[in-house]
TrEMBL record:
<feature type="domain" description="DML1/Misato tubulin">
    <location>
        <begin position="147"/>
        <end position="330"/>
    </location>
</feature>
<dbReference type="InterPro" id="IPR019605">
    <property type="entry name" value="Misato_II_tubulin-like"/>
</dbReference>
<dbReference type="InterPro" id="IPR049942">
    <property type="entry name" value="DML1/Misato"/>
</dbReference>
<dbReference type="GO" id="GO:0007005">
    <property type="term" value="P:mitochondrion organization"/>
</dbReference>
<dbReference type="InterPro" id="IPR036525">
    <property type="entry name" value="Tubulin/FtsZ_GTPase_sf"/>
</dbReference>
<dbReference type="Pfam" id="PF10644">
    <property type="entry name" value="Misat_Tub_SegII"/>
</dbReference>
<dbReference type="Pfam" id="PF14881">
    <property type="entry name" value="Tubulin_3"/>
</dbReference>
<dbReference type="InterPro" id="IPR029209">
    <property type="entry name" value="DML1/Misato_tubulin"/>
</dbReference>
<feature type="domain" description="Misato Segment II tubulin-like">
    <location>
        <begin position="7"/>
        <end position="120"/>
    </location>
</feature>
<protein>
    <recommendedName>
        <fullName>Protein misato</fullName>
    </recommendedName>
</protein>
<dbReference type="GO" id="GO:0005739">
    <property type="term" value="C:mitochondrion"/>
</dbReference>
<keyword id="KW-0496">Mitochondrion</keyword>
<comment type="similarity">
    <text>Belongs to the misato family.</text>
</comment>
């Protein structure tokens, strides 16, 4: 087994977080490059691990622990499909002799066309099939999965290690008679030794494989029982591994109607806990208003997606997360997770905002300078509720991917004699920093990271892009052929510490404070006292006040 150092363990809690995570792992695997003697731009060893099956076959799987409810896996087994172990067996232990075992099988869910092709490609050790068009051109096969995806497992591309999947057996997925939908329910699951001891053992096993673990990145559903379960796990990580960093992404899935009162309380309890337990947390929602009245879905100018489909909205979030995480995944001069969280979480401001421009609008015949000179409106669109990135941004990191240095500016632009400082820039990062310096006078510090790798958006990424986005993700005047999808795109993503986060957190505090906890029997019966809730809300209010005007000392 090969160790490289700077590893990170990923944990995912909840069905929507697993949708996001699945897109994220798909994008990473689609970006693998197999070029002898040429290291890839991205160091995949940060989030992936090398292993070996009992048959001596080398494997490469995410260093991942995910949690979901019983009945949520669709056609996937709890052990995954990589090692071919008997369901329930530990892949690290020898199997019983076949004549001593009685196997009871259960009919599995039917596989969609993508999973069938993926299974066949793995059997034949070949890539996914192409389609031959009338023009004689072979193009990647298009899959239309909007009506087929019921679970995140319906579009999972990479193999998972048998220890990755952890199911909450006490609750059934989508069971209205016994929903897993309150913060205390999640805390109660963690108190059960069967669950917590198994999960913590698996964390320890991953940690023992690493050379120099940086810490943990945690995705968690923030408005149901997984909010309490995720925060309980974070409490364990903080107690057991106090020197390790915890970057947390609490996720709010799309919802057409206003949130029920108990979900607002879940959100409030989760974020107030994360203010203490995480090194940095970034609330994520695909809506403009939030928290209770979610408002419209975030509108990105070059996308057309269905805001009611987890499959679609999670792809947008995953594109932002994958691009933002390049900060600590690049092979050349990566920023350590501890440095990133410390810089953006200065002065106790542990909440940050995530934003994205998907795709970054670069025309097929244009340079970055051309794009910025024609730019109108915000550079990126926030995925964190009630945040304004036009003013009051103190610290931010931006990642521009998929634009090569050769696209900086044309030769005639480079040789122009002008008072415009943009013409003297000699790198993409310098040009973008210069643009931001004049675009926003309130930004104290901006760090720009660039990478040539575009975001892979091949199957099973959903078809979100408008027709005038080319197969390579560039803007063009003509529509791409109907039989071709968008294979990869440039992206601009950002992580920001900004004043509007104070207003966002204060709004959540105000909405939660109006709720009478005694009217919600789910919380009262779980033993959550009014005083305990008030203390949590006070902590949330104190965090929001760190973003006020009089706290802007740098």
């Amino acid at each position: 087994m090969v160790f490289t150092g700077n590893e990170i363990i990923t944990l995912q809690f909840g069905h929507y977080s697993n949708f996001i995570g699945t897109h994220w792992w798909n994008c990473q695997e689609a970006g693998f490059e197999y070029i002898p003697d040429t290291p890839s731009e991205i160091n995949h060893d940060v989030l992936f691990r090398e292993g070996q099956t009992s048959r001596g076959e080398v494997t490469y799987t995410p260093r991942l622990l995910l949690v979901d409810l019983k009945g949520s896996l669709g056609c996937l087994t709890e052990e995954g499909r990589l090692y071919g172990v008997t369901p329930g067996a530990d892949a690290t232990l020898p199997l019983w002799p076949p004549d001593k075992v009685t196997v009871q099988t259960q009919a599995s869910e039917p596989k969609n066309e993508f999973l069938q092709d993926l299974e066949q490609a793995e059997t034949l050790a070949s890539p996914l099939p192409n389609e031959l068009k009338e023009s004689g051109k072979a193009v990647p096969k298009l899959y239309h999965l909007d009506n087929d995806v019921k679970s995140w497992s319906d579009f999972l591309r990479p193999h998972l290690h048998p220890r990755s999947i952890n199911l909450v057996q006490e609750y059934q997925h989508e069971d209205p008679s016994l929903p897993f939908d309150t913060f205390p329910q999640g805390q109660d699951i963690w108190r059960k030794p069967r669950f917590s001891e198994e999960l913590t053992d698996r964390v320890r096993l991953y940690l023992e494989e690493t050379d120099n673990l940086q810490g943990f990145q945690v995705l968690m559903d923030s408005q149901d029982g997984f909010s309490g379960l995720g925060c309980s796990a974070l409490q364990y990580l903080r107690d057991e591994y106090p020197s390790k960093v915890c970057l947390c992404l609490p996720c709010q899935p799309p919802q057409a109607s206003p949130l029920a009162l108990h979900k607002v309380l879940n959100l409030s309890l989760a974020l107030s806990s994360l203010a203490e337990l995480s090194s940095l947390f970034c609330p994520i929602s695909g809506t403009t208003s939030g928290w209770r009245d979610l408002g419209k879905s975030v509108q990105l100018p070059f996308l057309q997606y269905k805001s009611d489909l987890y499959y679609h909205t999670s792809a947008v979030v995953a594109a932002a997360v994958d691009s933002m995480s390049l900060v600590y995944r690049l092979r050349a001069e990566p920023e350590r997770l501890a440095d990133l969280t410390a810089r953006l979480g200065m002065y106790g401001r542990r909440a940050a905002a995530l934003s994205v421009m998907l795709p970054f609008p670069l025309r097929v015949d244009a340079t970055l300078l051309d794009a910025l000179e024609r730019w109108e409106g915000p550079l990126t669109h926030p995925l964190t509720p009630l945040t304004d990135l036009q003013t009051g941004v103190w610290q931010q990191t931006l990642v521009l991917r998929g634009v090569p240095e050769s696209r900086l500016m044309r030769a005639d632009q480079r040789n122009m004699s002008s008072s415009n400082p943009a013409y003297s820039c000699r790198s993409l990062a310098h040009l973008l920093q210069t643009f931001l310096q004049f675009d926003s006078q309130t930004t104290v510090h901006t760090k720009v990271i660039t990478a040539e790798n575009k975001l892979p958006t091949s199957a099973p990424f959903p078809h979100l892009f408008l027709q005038h986005i080319s197969q390579d993700g560039l803007l063009q005047d003509t529509s791409r052929p109907s039989y071709t999808g968008v294979e990869k795109v440039p992206v601009l993503a950002g992580l920001h510490s900004c004043q509007s986060l104070g207003h966002s957190l204060e709004t959540l505090h105000s909405e939660a404070k109006r709720i009478n906890i005694r009217s919600l029997h789910q919380f009262a019966s779980a033993g959550l006292e009014s005083l305990e809730l008030l203390e949590s809300l006070e902590q949330l209010l104190c965090l929001s006040e760190l973003y006020s005007d009089h706290q802007m000392d740098f």
